[in-house]
Amino acid sequence: GLRAVIEAAQAIQLDECATAVVCGMESMSTIPHILTGARWAPARTGDIVIRDEFFSMVEPLSGMGAIELAERTAARYGISRAEQEQFALESHQKAARAWDEGWMAEQVVPVNVPATKTSPARCFATDECIRENVTLERLAALDPLQPGGTVTAATSSSVTDGAGAVVVTTRQRARQAGIRPLASLVAYVQVGVEPQDMLEGPAAAIPALLDRAGMELSRMDLLEVNEAFAAQVIANERCLHWDRSRLNVHGGAIALGHPTGFTGVRLLLSAGYALRRRGGTLAMIALCGGGGLGVAMIIRTE
To answer: Where are the domains of the chain?
Structure first.
């Protein structure tokens, strides 16, 4: 998502186009279950195993799964389970408050799902994963995702579907169309880290971007950093020492979900709307990516 926005901006700068629509989507609920060999050579004796492909997803260069990477990051930075659960609690509380106070409705387009033979018609107008009444006691009761680990389902981003879009254009064309832009793009960067350290991508990308833009992190009114895992965000926070009160003020992916192909667009929109609501000027957006990537972007309100 965020990389696609960068590609659109570069195309405009190169005069390859004047306006671009950038879309991102993911349907994690339709990740398949695999019955290996059933099509051409079904087993006649013995058991047939159905494999959940969601848990087969790995970082391609390190060969490590997402939970394994999160546990590695937590151990590397000495991040306790209690710290992760406190962070997750805050994410849900911020997201619930943002919905209750009406700050999220303008960012969300309701989706109508027609009735089928087995289910009635439904309208999805709010995020389903927010747990408004969650408590630390309930979080502490969950089993870790790996034996002896510190990462639980509650301290991981939710498995969700989502889609979104932004229009990227020049200031001149926006004025000609009578449109007030949500924000303008100040600078962006993509960097690489060791694949097994991919969750620390923002900690590498943000300083590189600040250096390119000639700015300090303290100038950022808001930070929108993807919450793949609570341990991941806390690790990046320990590297960069940001002010958590400015972080993900409307909640993050732990509460809202992390449909991977959509998340970059969602982060950009969340940052832009939050700046407009709070009267800020600058926001830093950052996330990690498979292969050891870190992507960051600075936007400014118009």
So the answer is: 2-28+60-106+120-300
Pair 296, 210: CB distance under 8 Å: no
Amino acid identity, position 233: V
Q: With helix as H, strand as E and coil as C, how does 125-163 read?
A: CCCCCCCCCCCHHHHHCCCCCCCCCCCCHHHECCCCEEE
CATH topology classification for 2-28+60-106+120-300: Peroxisomal Thiolase; Chain A, domain 1 (3.40.47)
Residue with token string 């400014």: 300
Rounded distance between C-alpha atoms, residue 155 and residue 161, angstroms: 18
- 0.85 cut: is pTM over it? yes
- Indicate the residue type of 253: A
Whole-Å CA distances, 230 to 23, 140, 153, 164, 289: 26, 14, 10, 24, 16
* pLDDT tens across the length of the chain (302 residues): 899 999 999 999 999 999 999 999 998 888 888 887 777 766 667 777 888 877 667 777 888 888 999 999 999 999 999 999 999 999 999 999 999 999 998 899 999 999 999 999 999 888 888 998 999 999 999 999 999 999 999 999 988 899 999 999 999 999 999 999 999 999 999 999 999 999 999 999 999 999 999 999 999 999 999 999 999 999 999 999 999 999 999 999 999 999 888 999 999 999 999 999 999 999 999 999 988 999 999 999 97
